[in-house]
Amino acid sequence: MSVDSKAGKQPDPHDLVDLSRLVSAYYTLQPDVANPAEKVSFGTSGHRGSSVHAAFNENHILAITQAIVEYRAGKGITGPLFLAMDTHGLSEPAFRTALEVLAANGVTTMIDAASGRGGSYGYTPTPALSHAILNYNAGRRDSLADGIVITPSHNPPEDGGFKYNPPNGGPADTDVTKAVQDRANEILAAKLSDVKRVPFAQALTASTTQKHDYVAEYVGDLKLVLDMDAIANSGLKLAVDPLGGAGVAYWPRIAEQYKLPLTVLSTVVDATFRFMHIDWDGKIRMDCSSPYAMAGMIANKDRYDVSWACDTDHDRHGIVAKSVGLLNPNHYLSVAIEYLFQNRGHWRNDAAIGKTLVSSSMIDRVGAGIGRKVLEVPVGFKWFVTGLSDGSLGFGGEESAGASFLRLDAGAWSTDKDGPIMGLLAAEMTARTGKDPGELYQALTAKYGNPVYQRIDAAATKDQKAKLAKLSPEQVTTKELAGEPITQVLTNAPGNGAAIGGLKVTTQNGWFAARPSGTEDVYKIYAESFQGEDHLKKIQEEAKALVDVVLK
User: Is the same domain home to 255 and 268?
Assistant: First the structure.
């Protein structure tokens, strides 16, 4: 993976997105439904694309929203729909379009309480929407609520995203997204003839459009999931950077309401994201787990005991500890898991740990050490929704810095990834243990070993990616990996038997997983070794050679 010469630096004017061109293209470009790149396509996190490439335009949002209206009607989902958006340049145009369709169809829609003041519209983090859905549906059997989140997550400023969360509050499963995707493409092909729509001014004042105070609800409930008193009384110096994202109005309220020693580094919203540091590939990307994007916070690590950032829709976290700087996401997941399961006495004794199959094996060793089962599932937070809902999972986390966990009383908090509680958890564990997350991870390595982990990308055609997604264990004939006997060859996740869309090979001290990218002509090799960098390189070399043979 080559690193761009601009990585870690702040952008110059030539690197910034042209917002007027972006918004103009949203309204004027017409997608060609015969072109797969311009059709509605739901990946693991909804439909994403850029308006200038005719991949995220008004017609897409009209069709998707109408398809969601029809889907929820067909499933008897008659409660309100919670509507959220982040601060990307395409989010507000998509918000307007979606509300026009929802109002025309008579769907009660809950928008942020700040919306409409002075022509502005409130921003809502993904976890705040998930939390709102769960709160509304608690104790109900019918008239359930669901939601739409308008966000491409941490993607570059030119991208837009549109995601549906059903009544369980989490990301929609593939059966739901396929139904919505297919119906939306039918609507596009029929030139939007089935779309119901009213003008935005009418939609905003419709009786079905109601204001919801997402900020007050989410902030007020944080004491149910975290020891906010311990943080308030800690004497620590804490800081958070919302990275110009959907949580900009939340952090000042959190600091004030709970009297936290928390500095909010910025509340600036600028859809060009000119305040970011450029990511590894030369793009502006609000990835709070990237050392390049987080270069500014890393440089200031000694000013605070713990600091953190969240991505644009606040479903991911990046933790900066004074002891080590930016924590690798796998390291922080491991620390959070050990701390939580030892400090949440009301959780079920059999509550398990949820991890994706490309997350660190340190999590497995921690789980064994604290006597908790580890549920290993394919990539995608949707696999944790049921467990977090019924309490059979205390924690669910992904290697890409997304996680959530149960309330103090073992109830469900959010069934989508929650960056704010993961940031505040870093403060809680530092306050209560006297050690920051970096120091706590060093203690784990002393106990369980010190793994090295890396992801690399390799070129692959669409046909090769299709082959990789359909591999069977029998196609792997070698018995060793990097000098160790192979203990498992997996094409289905051991935690739930679901297909992983690729391959994972494990040994006692290492593993690799290979998966095709859903958006690029590459496949991804994740690898980890508990025997150092040289052993990791051997795993990576043999993994690539093994996959290349299979793909011929």
Answer: yes
